[in-house]
Amino acid sequence: MADRIPLPEEARAPENPAGPDDGIHHLAPDLAYARLMIVNVAFLGLPDSGDRGWVLVDAGLPGTKGTIREAAARRFGSTARPAAILLTHGHFDHVGVLEDLAEEWDVPVYAHPLEKPYLDGSAAYPPPAPEVGGGLMARLSPLFPRKPLDLGARLHMLPQDGTLPFAPGWRWLHTPGHSVGHVSFWREADRSLVAGDAVVTTRQESAYAAVAQTPELHGPPAYFTVDWEAAAQSARQLSTLEPETMVAGHGRAMAGPALRSALHELAANFERLGMPERTRYAEAPARAEDGSAYPKP
Predict the structure, then answer these.
(1) pLDDT by residue (tens digit) across 176-194?
(2) CA–CA distances in Å: residue 153 to residues 180, 246, 270
């Protein structure tokens, strides 16, 4: 596997500045996240903002519906439904309870147009690359679900102008590589970044590291990344933002100068620090342009 970039203790984002220690990690008055075993979901919106006054980012692993619903109820109110669910991408660990929550809350789901085939039933994700090594998660990756969801009329495309529905002040950025339609969410006003899996802060290929979440900056989870040239470009794009706070799809939220320094180091040396030594997608990326990213389910 690629070399790691350790993140010092001072890089950890200050958490719970605006609320109690209720299992939700508060990063700003209107930005919080919850850790669901090995993956994160984020909440955009002020506490107690009520019904349709907030949005959920991603939808966790299968079996986490109750945890997400309870966290949302504690933060926004027991009857408060989101205005929408926004997806960074559609891998199984980010849409595990998406259909159930979208149905229960009666909400639209927004994703990048290139992610649409994985969410309308028409294409599976490309096969994983367990040869990347690094631990049990990589070895088990051929067992992970790849078949698409079919969200039907609930599925909507993110606006072409880059705005983020129901989240004033936020924009979406196309950050492909891990998936062809992967996006990250950015708020310039306070330089807050929801990175999805474009970069992560734990070694996701290792089951132990994914659970322990020792802070380290990494490129995207290698076993599911299908275009490493695009992944490198996405990491460089995020580094230029100079984020103050970043929550990724995996690992703890990070902040401050140490985060920015690590992002610059990763961007400058991505081929050494971000890429595995072996992967089928280094020489033969799966891309939307030639259809290789969309095998039949």
Answers:
(1) 999 999 999 999 999 999 9
(2) 22, 32, 39
pLDDT digits (tens, 9 = 90+) for 108-137: 999 999 999 999 999 999 999 999 999 999
List b or e across 250-264, with b for residues whose CB sees 16 or more CB atoms inside 10 angstroms. Answer: bbbbbbbebbbbbbe
In the chain, DSSP finds a helix count (H) and a strand count (E) of: 7, 14
Closest alpha carbon to 100 in 141, 67, 51, 136: 67
Q: How far is Cα 95 from Cα 83, in angstroms, rounded to an integer?
A: 17
Cα torsion for 65, 175, 191, 259, to the nearest 10°? 90
**Fold of the domain built from segment(s) 5-273:** Metallo-beta-lactamase; Chain A (3.60.15)
pLDDT tens for each residue of 98-114:
999 999 999 999 999 99
**Domain assignments of the chain as residue spans, ordered by start:** 5-273
Degrees to nearest 5, angle at CA 227 with 221 and 230: 100
**Nearest 5°: CA angle at 66, between 60 and 72?**
80
- State the Cα–Cα distance between residues 182 and 234, nearest whole angstrom: 10
CB 132 within 8 A of CB 276: yes
The model scores a pTM over 0.90: yes
- 10 within 8 A of 261, measured Cβ to Cβ: no
Rg (CA), the chain: 17
